[in-house]
Amino acid sequence: MTDPRLVTLGLACAYVAYVLIVRDRRGAPPARAIDASIPTGIELTVAHAGTIKTRRFGRRILVGRAPSADLRLDDPRVSRLHARIEMRDDGVYVEDLGSRNGTAVDGEPVAEPRQLTVDDEITVGGAALVFRGVGAWR
Q: Rounded to an integer, what distance in angstroms lies between the CA atom of residue 84 and that of residue 43?
């Protein structure tokens, strides 16, 4: 009968030898991956109720009075779900969601989804939302 302590010692030695041999064959670790700058969100400057704030959002923003809205505006001229601003493959678009008072970009009403450019001003009720661009932040 074999002593279990000798079996355990033999297995431990075999494991150590295996790790040392495999580690030697692996070579140097690979270089760190490049931290790519992938646009992950939309940045807006919001001027509403006497305040001006620059805020960062995700890839889609729902604007309205509803508690579920990402950008909540307490204004009777703003519908519960008033507009949507979202990133698509070819740019950032604003779309009116059938609001009563409408949405405008640089003074022009939005009838169908409209692509935004940097510094476009979106008017929703009494609020002015200035599109600042997209970025990657954490």
A: 14
Lowest mean pLDDT segment, chosen from 32-36, 62-66, 75-79, 81-85: 32-36
Rounded Cα distance, 37 and 48, in Å: 31
Please answer whether residues 133 and 110 qualify as being in contact, where contact means their C-beta atoms are separated by less than 8 angstroms: no
Query: Using CA atoms, how far apart are residues 45 and 52, in angstroms rounded to an integer?
Result: 7
* CA–CA distance, 18 with 47 (Å, rounded to integer): 65
Q: pTM here? A: 0.70
**pLDDT tens digits for 108-117?**
999 999 999 9
pLDDT of residue 4: 85
Contact between 94 and 114 (Cβ < 8 Å): yes
C-alpha–C-alpha distance, residues 64 and 71, integer Å: 7
Measured CA angle at 21 (ends 12, 15), to 5 deg? 15
Phi first, then psi, for residue 90 (nearest 5°) are -105, 15
